[in-house]
Amino acid sequence: MTLVDSWDLKKWRKKFGYNQFEAAEKLGVNRGAVQNWEREIRPVPKAVELACEELNQLATRHPSFGPVLLVYTDGPLLQPSQEPYQVSVLRFESCPTNEAAIEQACRLTRDPLFVDPVILGEDGSVIWDSPALLKECERCLTDKSRCR
User: Fold this and answer.
1) Quick check: 38 and 10 in contact, CB under 8 A?
2) pLDDT higher than threshold 60 for residue 48
3) Where are the domains of the chain?
4) Which of 38, 78, 85, 122 is deepest in the core (most CB within 10 A)?
5) Is the distance from CB of 44 to CB of 5 less than 8 angstroms?
């Protein structure tokens, strides 16, 4: 998500159900700054864009966020040219929450046909990319007390 104008900031605020005061609090600014940005009196600073992106990622990675899709393949998508070509099948599983998707991913990590997993939001945005999701599974499998 890249904010470019006041309309995008307002959409971001409404998406999370924040009023201007709450948005200002989350962004570490005063309410007047949010008002000025939304009224196009001042442009939305890059730092605010980055803060909104970070807050968006934190919200979408919350265990209760969902529904989501766990997407993976049964083989590598990119294959060395000197080896025989194999067609990999894209698989997806609908999950009610991030927590359920991560638990399923952790179970599937033992399967050699579980390759390049990602968790996507309903809008197709990547919530957990493959390296982050595999790291989360590794963390959960080695320390079950810390796992969701």
Assistant:
1) yes
2) yes
3) 6-60, 68-142
4) 38
5) yes
- Helix ranges (H only) for 16-129 are 20-27, 31-38, 46-60, 98-108
Please give the distance of CA 92 from its chain centroid, rounded to a whole number. Answer: 16
- In this structure, of 68-77, 80-89, 125-134, the range with the lowest mean pLDDT score is 80-89
Residue 67: is the preceding peptide bond cis (ω within 30°)? yes
Identify residue 11 by its one-letter amino acid code. K
Q: What is the pTM of this model?
A: 0.75
- Mean pLDDT score, 119-145: 89
What is the layout of strands, in order, in the sheet containing 126-128?
A: 90-95, 68-73, 115-121, 126-128
Phi then psi dihedrals of residue 94, to 5 deg = -80, 135
CATH class held by domain 6-60: mainly alpha
Q: Which three-class secondary structure state does DSSP give residue 66?
A: coil
The pLDDT confidence band at residue 74, using thresholds 50, 70 and 90, is confident
Write the CB contacts of 89 (distance below 8 Å, at least 6 apart in sequence): 73, 74, 75
